Amino acid sequence: xxxxxxxxxxxxxxxxxxxxxxxxxxxxxxxxxxxxxxxxxxxxxxxxxxxxxxxxxxxxxxxxxxxxxxxxxxxxxxxxxxxxxxxxxxxxxxxxxxxxxxxxxxxxxxxxxxxxxxxxxxxxxxxxxxxxxxxxxxxxxxxxxxxxxxxxxxxxxxxxxxxxxxxxxxxxxxxxxxxxxxxxxxxxxxxxxxxxxxxxxxxxxxxxxxxxxxxxxxxxxxxxxxxxxxxxxxxxxxxxxxxxxxxxxxxxxxxxxxxxxxxxxxxxxxxxxxxxxxxxxxxxxxxxxxxxxxxxxxxxxxxxxxxxxxxxxxxxxxxxxxxxxxxxxxxxxxxxxxxxxxxxxxxxxxxxxxxxxxxxxxxxxxxxxxxxxxxxxxxxxxxxxxxxxxxxxxxxxxxxxxxxxxxxxxxxxxxxxxxxxxxxxxxxxxxxxxxxxxxx
Length: 440
Known about the structure:
CATH topology of the largest domain: Cytochrome Bc1 Complex, Chain A, domain 1
Low-confidence stretches: 2-19
Shape: globular
Protein name: Pitrilysin family protein
Order of helices and strands: HEEEHHEEHHHHHEHEEHHEEHHHHHE
Strand content: 15-25%
Keywords: Hydrolase, Metalloprotease, Protease, Signal, Zinc
CATH class of the largest domain: Alpha Beta
Organism: Croceitalea vernalis
């Protein structure tokens, strides 16, 4: 959901800095299975109400993809007690802002309000859960919205289909092999009953975590939460399926032509472990070492010194079950994709066979500290972190302790993990090319 309701209080949230002190929180379960997390910070009169549902694109039927993202839009259509088209007006007229996001593993909704409207935020999210209106007019309206979003962000965007092409080759068994936005054909052919059944299955309190963070009174907030969410019936248990991928027998070479680009792109993709694994944290540091900033190894070598690339990148996209480590670049002039790949591979081999310098290691630690602090630099950021750490890591305390994992990673681990996962014969090589015009 990309529609924002901006207000003075939205700016205030972004300015409400919380530095490196420990984030205090309290958590408990309602009788219906909803997990509740409370964080009290009375320094600024603002509050975030957020609900994260353990449903993402990986939970979809392979023949009905796009549902999780579609619901991110659909559930703003209205409820039994909030008329269609009134959701955003209700938020903005009360000094708030709101949004929602979907990924492979979860769907997240939130409202930011001045703290005297905490109860309004709780009521609205309970309405979304208990009384959503899912009818044909709402479905038809949001189908048009999602169609336009896909055209803008994927089909007509330069390099917009790289993830689609890479992931369907990295993952052959796991549902990560389709994109979060899914198939427009699947959405177009789906019935109203399909959408209603999806809501009934996944939008239940026992598949959700409610986070309330900011200027609140704990006992008063607990009472309101019980009043608004306690009576909602528990749903059937949601089973998170397990998918085991076979090792990649490669390299798997893929070519794709995009009519929206003029400069080719080379990408190498490696399947990596899920985000809770220690190795995933090490891979984060490796990507920082290789391409984060102008002093990083790949940027300095390929962009600054050899002037072979317009851009280089390396990132570890960790999800709940698996990750995808992606590295590549855009060539300059007559530089070939093979040349870029060769230079990148040389730097990867160095990481795999040599210890990085103590100076570079300290830079990695400093960046990890900075990223950790920035992720919790606002009340809204803290709410999102609390929800994710509980829902996807099963450890809410990571909001205070995750940085200790990065601090404990050694130079030897960086070398060994690079050698373990960044193997040429276990990767996908994607040549993302300009469309070849027919000579006729």
